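cache lookup: miss for this entity combination. No prior model stored, computing from scratch. Input as submitted by user K.M.:
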Amino acid sequence: MTPQPAGHDAFDSGDFLALTTNDVEMRHGLLEIFLAEAPQLAERLSRALAADDSREVALAAHALRSLLASVGGRASFRCAGEIERAAKAGDLMAAAALHGELGESTELLRIALIAFVRGEQPSC
Amino acid sequence: MLSESEFGPPRSEGAGVRPVRHIMVCDDDLAVRYAMKRMFMQELRAEVIEAENGLVALKALRESPVDLLILDINMPVVDGVEALQAIRSTPALARLPVIVLSGECDAETVKRVIDLGVTDYLSKPLSRPGTLERLKRITASLQVEAKSQPAHQTRSKGATLMAGHKLLVVDASEDFRYFIRTTFGTRFRIVEAANGIDALDIALGARPHAVMIGRDVPQMEADQLAQKLRKLKIREDLVLIAVAARAELDAIRECGLYDACVPRTFVPEVFAREFDALGPASVPLAELLELCPTLRAQMVSAAEQVFGMMLKMDVEPRDRVVIPFQPPYAVAKIGLAIGDRFSARFDLVADVTSANAFAVAMFGVPEPGEALGELSNIVAGRVKHALVNDHINVTLGLPDVSVVETGEVDARPHDSLGVRFGVTGSDYELEIRFSVSARNPIAADAASANKGLS
């Protein structure tokens, strides 16, 4: 795994490149999928938390986690995993407490991923 | 010889796998489907069909047969286990190669998936180091038409030696010839020659399956004799074995004349162990391997799948130098009944340190016996599945687990099919073994016991 400086593991280019290798078109494709899907999945998670539906929270978190793994979102992947585990254990308070962190790390990921794929170095 | 009627219809000769041209990727994650589709299209020039859940996959499979299915487990509507169950119970799809994508799966799910039968697995996330290389290796191996080859011939150049075969021993030393006669006389039909000319004469008449050639061969040099035997084409599958001092073996191997090279020793256990790679010692095991030639490969695959999916540990065969397990070690033994004439035993052995590590990975606590019991149950189940696929009826008993604190070392019996594994990146080791014998009371108990037969 690519070592990350503290607080900068929102986007792991090493993970992203491990999946996409030298396929530039795949990186663009995955970026587009992420930009389209991530907001929908995040919305699904928010609704599930608001409805106190632990099963749906777990499903939404699982789906989001899978997407985040495909684009090198290490921190948000980890956070979504913790939300999923908390929901499966019936602890929606813990899941809700992590929701904010998930949103932040996903936003940082979005910025870094766009910059990386479109050729610029991320500033975060 | 076992009767075919006892074990069902014969396998078709030359059963292989079609080239992989049509692949289905079934995963609810669009990003995963997209990435895999691109990969397969580029690496294999394959046509890829996508399915977002098991139900879509099953409906699509009705219309469009594929050569390979990549199947996620956790999906909505119809999940991977349900889809796999439907696939395996559909005659037209029962043998479809399936690679499972496994994220976090509980032991029950892993066991169920393995019982249903999967070709291989991939761990998620796909960005995990080595995953893509693994996928490429798996799909590359599926593209190779597999001819029926005995499972144990991993070291030899495409020839094999079975119990009951005729073995010609050529060496000037009468002591050495006597040693071979007494060590292997019950396993092979031994004929002897003290020099190269006699060896050729006997070989032309007796047509041995294998010729073991020492370095001291009067009237003809050993390698010259080997070349002559090849040229005479006594048998197409003739096995040539060189016996020499360890220091000479590398050079002998490099010359490429021999199917195997065995170090010269007069210690029966050491010689037998070195010789074991050439073929099974027991006739029942040899007969079973004729019916299920991929047994060793299935054992390796089962261990890789179970440890990979359940424990997230990569295991690889490490059979080059096998040191017996010293106490303390744990062993799980499972009796099997094969047809109504033979019994078998499946063993899983590990030193206690390794077994504790497996237990911690599975349960979070160091319970070595529990871990080996559970693991042996699942791996043996997978092996059973392989035998059933080859139309061999098998019933399994329950694991009998023990932890040996002191006393004798555990050594692989020479009449078993065994594989030693190491866990990548660690010193942990384990061994799985399969022994077959004529029906005995222990196995009869395992087969007839009321509890837990599957």
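stored under new cache key. Chain B is about 40% helix and 20% strand.
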